[in-house]
């Protein structure tokens, strides 16, 4: 199966790659749905990663992101992240990398022009439309930080459930899917939309890389049952 996928890759002028939390599993970042270890075991991330939860419990949600930021800061990109960055450098203009991940590991591995559909956990933004008084450089040091004048809260610059994805990024991802000769769908359960929908609009062959079945298997031309950091080097190394 991997030889067939290598053949499709060799023939593909345009390659789109869609990655999810499984891409970072071998770096030690728990995947989104099993990330609920310890304190967070009793919460459903789909409940926590919402504006409603943040407005209701700003400190609790802020602390959840602070814990995840600390974890991400301690890990390194894995061989899967690295081989995607190397391949793109050796084949300019041929690979478009689309990720649902907010951990920044693709970018730290050297990938450029990453279409980060769900934002970046290491960046903040204002919860409400900032006013002249909301000076991002001096929010009050609290959990979460806030504007000392109007009380506007800082929040993680990620896309929460129920929030629109950045429109330009999503449009670029859709264009990449619709123009590709091959799409690699790596480390995603295919549950979250509209990201998962990209695999269903791929013009080219769809190859899934995942140790488990996913919601997108029916859309695949080939399924490589295995781990990203092991299979991507086998697939992408010249
Ligand atoms: C929106 C940032 C509308 C926050 C995240 C259509 C149909 C159904 C539902 C919807 C729909 N449209 C909208 C919805 C609702 C919702 C949704 O999809 N809900 C799902 C749960 C049913 N979507 C939204 O709310 C989106 N917004 O559509 O807005 C709108 C319209 C108009 C006006 C206003 C609004 C926004 C979704 C974005 C949510 N934010 N992240 C944060 O991180 O805190 S999503 C979050 O889940 C992560 O980004 C994560 O990446 C993502 C998806 O999960 P996966 O990446 O797939 O991770 P998961 O743990 O599920 O799976 C891991 C996989 O890895 C597994 O398959 C495993 O087998 C595999 N694996 C494990 N180890 C390895 C491996 N693979 C390879 N190698 C390994 N070693």
Q: Indicate the proportion of strand residues.
A: 15-25%
Order of helices and strands: HEHHHHEHEEEHEHEEH
Number of strands: 8
Q: Strands across the major sheet, in which order?
A: 3-2-1-6-7-8
Q: Gyration radius, to the nearest Å?
A: 19 Å
- Class from helix and strand fractions: alpha/beta
Can you identify the CATH class of the largest domain? Answer: Alpha Beta
Q: State the helical fraction.
A: 25-40%
What is the number of independent domains?
Answer: 2
Q: Please give the CATH architecture of the largest domain.
A: 3-Layer(aba) Sandwich
**Total number of helices:** 9
Compounds present?
ligand BV8
CATH evolutionary superfamily of the largest domain = TPP-binding domain
What is the overall shape?
elongated
Low-confidence stretches: none
The largest β sheet comes out as:
6 strands, parallel
CATH fold topology of the largest domain: Rossmann fold
What does this structure look like?
By secondary structure, the protein is of the alpha/beta class. It has two domains: 1-28 and 76-118 and 165-238, Rossmann fold (3-Layer(aba) Sandwich), CATH 3.40.50.1220; 30-74 and 121-158, SIR2/SIRT2 'Small Domain' (2-Layer Sandwich), CATH 3.30.1600. Helix content is 33%, strand content 16%. The chain has nine helices and eight strands. It has helices at 2-11, 45-48, 51-56, 58-74, 79-90, 105-108, 167-179, 197-200, 228-236, and strands spanning 15-19, 95-99, 115-116, 119-126, 154-158, 182-186, 205-209, 222-224. A six-stranded parallel sheet has the order 3-2-1-6-7-8, with helices on both faces. It has a two-stranded antiparallel ribbon with strand order 4-5. α1 (2-11) packs across α9 (228-236) and α5 runs parallel beside α9. The chain is elongated. Bound molecules: ligand BV8.
